[in-house]
Amino acid sequence: MKLAVIGCGYVGLVTGACLAEAGHDVVCTDIDADRIAQLQSGNVPIYEHHLDKVLESVRRSGQISYTADAGDAIRASEAIFICVGTPPKDNGDADLSAIDNVARQIATEARSSKLVIEKSTVPARTGLELRRALSAYSRNSGLTFRVVSNPEFLREGTAVEDFLHPDRIVVGVEDDSSAAQMREIYRPILERKFRCPVHEDACPAGPEAPLLVTTINSAELIKHASNSFLALKISYANALADICERIGADVHEVTHAMGLDPRIGGQFLQAGLGFGGFCFPKDLQAFVHLAGTVGVDFEILKAAERVNKQRIDRFLEKVHQALWVVKGKRVAILGLAFKANTDDVRFSPALEVARRMLAEGADVHATDPEAISRAEAILPQVAYHRDPYDALRDAEALLICTEWDEFRQLDWERVAKLMARRLVIDGRNLCSPARMRELDFEYFSFGRELVRSSRMEAAR
Ligand code: UGA
User: Fold this and answer.
1) CA 428 to ligand 1: nearest atom
2) Which long-range CB contacts under 8 A does 201-205 form with residues at least 24 apart?
3) What is the mean pLDDT of the chain?
4) Which ligand 1 atom is nearest residue 154's CA?
5) Residue 125 has pLDDT above 90, yes or no
């Protein structure tokens, strides 16, 4: 099928690349002409695991093309995926101006009827507004547009795998023919008829993912409800970690045992610096706002947000407890991205920690496997190092802010020798307290025992 993708952020690019890999003819467009030029010349503007491989393969097979002219993309396609940004406004509501612009473009540029698929994360009822906007802007042409809500559940870092191996595909529709067309678009994915970039030999066997057909309002709500519930789980684990610290329990032991109950599940119970990124914080706010507009006070979500905001304070309390005075001290930060396997630093707790350390007068040195250039553009006052050992050399404290495997696998004996003081404050519970004790580190983490170095013990 001929498909257009409007918006070449990570959702748009992953959607375009994977649907092209599944055999569709995809044309991608974006208002950022530089980004389109970059993509046309074979460069991938974001770091997303496997995306470069898929984009290269579909570029070679001719399944994907790029144009800065949205009109061309719109006219060339039967179905259009809207993947533009919906950033938060000051009141927590989502800014839908990009969606409105795209609706106007589609309605005025199209020469035939199209299926318009809303993939951007939007508040409930946006699909219905989109349909109204499309019909208002197309009054003169008399064309009709069918609208579908097809929320994405892609995690940055594993987005290609999530797209090609979904747990579920949700399509919110108003008529059977839209549902049938969406099934056709996703058929190669459901039947696993694509070259999988993730599993080189064979994809793990498993049942076909369900394609759930719902109303548009339900589909939009499913996305909000899923993200908010996951955020709630994280905040629950973080509040639990605070209790564990106070009564001397281990949060990993507790969440591991809890997670074995299939009604609870073990994922998203990792305590630490809390959730960041462009999705959870803004989606939570938008959902609370939406609930408020229909007279529902979604108090538990407000509490989840509050707990999350306090994580940085809790982390800095540990820094102060350990370092006493921060001013003038060399501090190493491991991790800048909001989570591992991405270069995205938007709403990254790591950057907030760096900002606060700078404000207190620390000499901040930082490293990240992928996110240095993005962080540098925001916080030029930090000294950045590609090599983590250079970042932590002579440091009086090492703050772990992102859970990259590369940090887990550091030669910690070497780390101990390079640092001015063996002090680790682990915001992601990445290290094992037992190993840290063995290496005579002073080690702080969330919801687990405080490990004192032998010198600290002697000074007590
Ligand atoms: C999230 C959802 O997981 C996706 O399903 C959804 O499609 C996406 O938002 C979106 O709306 O586009 P993402 O923001 O990429 O995906 O990242 P997550 O893996 O969900 O992590 C979010 C944050 O929570 C990160 O800062 C991570 O470090 C933190 N986190 C995650 C924890 O602090 N503890 C955990 O146990 C899990």
Assistant:
1) 33
2) 203/165
3) 95
4) 7
5) no
